[in-house]
Design goal:
The structure holds two protein chains of two kinds.
Chain A: H1 3-10, H2 20-27, H3 34-101
Chain B: H1 5-24, H2 27-43, H3 51-73, H4 94-107, H5 111-122, H6 127-134, H7 138-166
The chains are: A mainly alpha, B mainly alpha.
């Protein structure tokens, strides 16, 4: 037998210790515990949704108030314009009647 | 998850542990590193496509982890190829004796030649596969192999001659 064959013979793989696999499996994190994993994921998702909702509600309320304020201001301006026009018209009528009577 | 991790451990534990033990010469550290490598694989299991891919990944990982560990801990002082100690000629059966001697001589090789010899004769890899695994030129692998064989042959015949002289 030449030295290369002797080396192949001498360097055959040794079996691992009897408890090697058990030790590896003990150190494996609980990745296969699917129910807990999914339950945690759902909880996280629900929490994230609740937080997002809690942040969006005040924004929507403020936005709605802002829009109502703008509408009210617009209505008030229109009313003032109408009043102004009416007053001007009334004033002209009074002016005309006064001139006619004098 | 497509691959059965427990099955991968079953199929590869012998390869991973043998490489680490023979390279590091410290069974406890070797076993610890072998466990770490399997855990590292477990964390990346979704990227591993086939059992052959897992074997390739593990072999590569244990080689590099062992080399890093050896460098980090400086488990042994640097030994040149010419300074390899003679193998003691003590054993029972002739085959076992020869195998023991050879294992001791391989164990005494310097780091890189030792890893290359292990990959060549334990794992039966070609020089090109070893070169790819250790990220070095094929010519360097061949050179290490050639020099290691010359030294091993010489030390082995000297040890055999000593034993014959004793008898």
């Amino acid at each position: 037998m030449n030295i290369e064959d002797q080396l192949r013979e001498a360097l055959k793989r040794e079996p691992a210790s009897a408890d090697f696999k058990r030790k590896v499996m003990q150190r494996v994190p609980a990745r296969n515990t699917a129910p807990i994993f999914w339950w945690k994921r759902r909880m996280s998702f629900a929490l994230a949704s609740a937080l997002a909702l809690a942040a969006l509600v005040p924004v929507a309320v403020v936005e709605q108030r802002h829009r109502r304020g703008a509408e009210a201001r617009e209505k008030l301006l229109t009313a003032l314009r109408v009043t102004n026009a009416t007053l001007r018209h009334t004033k002209e009528m009074i002016h005309r009647n006064t001139r006619r009577s004098s | 998850m497509g691959l059965d991790f427990a099955r991968i451990v079953d199929d590869n534990q012998s390869m991973v542990v043998s490489l680490a033990k023979r390279y590091l010469r410290d069974p406890e550290t070797a076993e610890e590193i072998a466990q770490d490598v399997f855990l590292q694989l477990y964390r990346q299991l979704d990227r591993i496509q086939t059992p052959e891919h897992a074997t390739f990944w593990l072999r590569r990982a244990i080689c590099h982890r062992s080399i890093d560990e050896s460098r980090r801990r400086k488990l042994r002082p640097h030994v040149g190829l010419d300074n390899i100690p003679e193998a003691p000629a003590v054993s029972s059966a002739p085959d076992t004796m020869l195998n023991d001697r050879l294992r001791r001589l391989v164990t005494a090789l310097p780091d890189m030649p030792r890893m290359i010899v292990l990959l060549r004769y334990q794992e039966d890899l070609d020089p090109s596969e070893i070169a790819a695994l250790l990220e070095m030129p094929v010519s360097t692998v061949k050179s290490h192999l050639h020099r290691s064989l010359v030294v091993l042959r010489s030390k082995l015949s000297r040890a055999g001659a000593k034993q014959e002289a004793c008898l």
